[in-house]
Amino acid sequence: MPTRDEILGAAQRQLNAQPTASMADLAAAAGIGRATLHRHFATREDLLHELGTRSIDRWRDSLDGADVAGVAASGDPVRIRTCLDDLLSRYLADSDDFGFALTDFSLTAAPDLVARSERLVAREVAFYAAAQAAGVLRADLPPRWLAHAVYGLLVAARDALAVGDVARRDLDTLVLSTFLTGAQQP
Amino acid sequence: MPTRDEILGAAQRQLNAQPTASMADLAAAAGIGRATLHRHFATREDLLHELGTRSIDRWRDSLDGADVAGVAASGDPVRIRTCLDDLLSRYLADSDDFGFALTDFSLTAAPDLVARSERLVAREVAFYAAAQAAGVLRADLPPRWLAHAVYGLLVAARDALAVGDVARRDLDTLVLSTFLTGAQQP
DNA sequence: CTCAAGTGAGACACTTATGTCTCATTCGAT
DNA sequence: ATCGAATGAGACATAAGTGTCTCACTTGAG
């Protein structure tokens, strides 16, 4: 009998592979009956919302774990640069699971999730701005754009991994290097 | 009475805003009756498939218009660099519309569309490889990864534009600059 | 003006997913 | 071994979307 969290995990995997999966599909993916799934999550919307909450929690954990606020406040270029490595690495570790949750319509439409993610974006943008002020990142790019660019590269990383174009062990370096120094021959 | 192409355009816009839009929604978006919509496209799948074809056509047009094959064959670094500018600029011009089509499950599952897009990816990858050989792009990044990275930045650009974080006129420079030289302070 | 083609509105049958409920069975704690 | 809680399977009503069809109406060409 899978725990509630295992059910959510199975649902997330299934929805990543097949975004239109029905409650019956999700129950099967978790190895439980449809009725049991409904005992855990009254409606499909509840389940999806909880999945969204889960993903946003992981995102927040990454920001917390990398201590972006503290490092940004320090203003130390070396620490900021290390923190950036750390943050992207944490994001990449989660990117497999995030795919669905961050793009699904029913989630991007939930007001509370949108509000939470806006706060997290603000934290991230503040960190990028600090990195610019410390001379770690170029100051001529809007910090909000940097946040989008990082997100885009995470999408790219996820796709590349899914298709098998890059190996997992190369991913961190690849993404970080592309983000920091770009693709142009120096 | 909107033409068939205008109907497709309206459907694309509507689906970008609301990926779950029903045939009734799409008919309303096009300003026609549901029966009329069904006269143009027998099934929803037909409509979606045609939308996918449309998007892939635009993608192919960008590759053709930039003449990536010819420029790659020339091996001229200056021409290659200009061509890259041109290509990204063309992609960005279409990015508004592509969002839905390239990520929708029902399209990424259509075998013929997948086959076509694989051929286009191959053309694009060949161009990046030529750019590496000519010393325009770094040779230490897999060309297939470069293709993913460009795609990711297009997603980022689309999002940034939708949210209003960047202005349309700045977009080309922003994306190209981020892709080529990265975000790090030189 | 006339007529044919196309259109919109609506009815219809069909399918699929959802959420609720019941009931027999299983499993664990006591 | 027994009791109780939880489960799986299935029935059920409901809702929503799909695809087909009919019919009255508009419109534009002849």
Describe the structure.
Two copies of one chain form a homodimer. In chain A, 38% of the residues are buried. Chain A is mainly alpha-helical. In chain A, helix 2 (23-30) crosses helix 3 (34-40), helix 5 (68-74) packs antiparallel against helix 6 and helix 9 (143-163) packs antiparallel against helix 10 (168-181). Chain A has helices at 4-17, 23-30, 34-40, 44-66, 68-74, 77-103, 105-108, 111-133, 143-163, 168-181. Chain A binds a DNA duplex (30 and 30 nucleotides) through helix 3.
Fold blueprint:
Two copies of one chain form a homodimer.
Chain A: H1 4-17, H2 23-30, H3 34-40, H4 44-66, H5 68-74, H6 77-103, H7 105-108, H8 111-133, H9 143-163, H10 168-181
Chain A binds a DNA duplex (30 and 30 nucleotides) through residues 1, 22-24, 32-36, 38-39, 42-44.
How many β-strands of chain A, per DSSP? 0
Assembly form of the protein: homodimer
Low-confidence stretches of chain A: none
- Major beta sheet of chain A, specifics? none
Mean pLDDT of chain A: 94
Q: Which percent bin holds the helix content of chain A?
A: over 70%
- Write the CATH fold name of the largest domain in chain A: Tetracycline Repressor, domain 2
H-E string of chain A: HHHHHHHHHH
Rg from Cα of chain A:
18 Å
CATH class placement of the largest domain in chain A? Mainly Alpha
Q: Approximately how much beta-strand content do the residues of chain A carry?
A: under 5%
| Overall tally of structural domains of chain A | 2
Shape of chain A: elongated
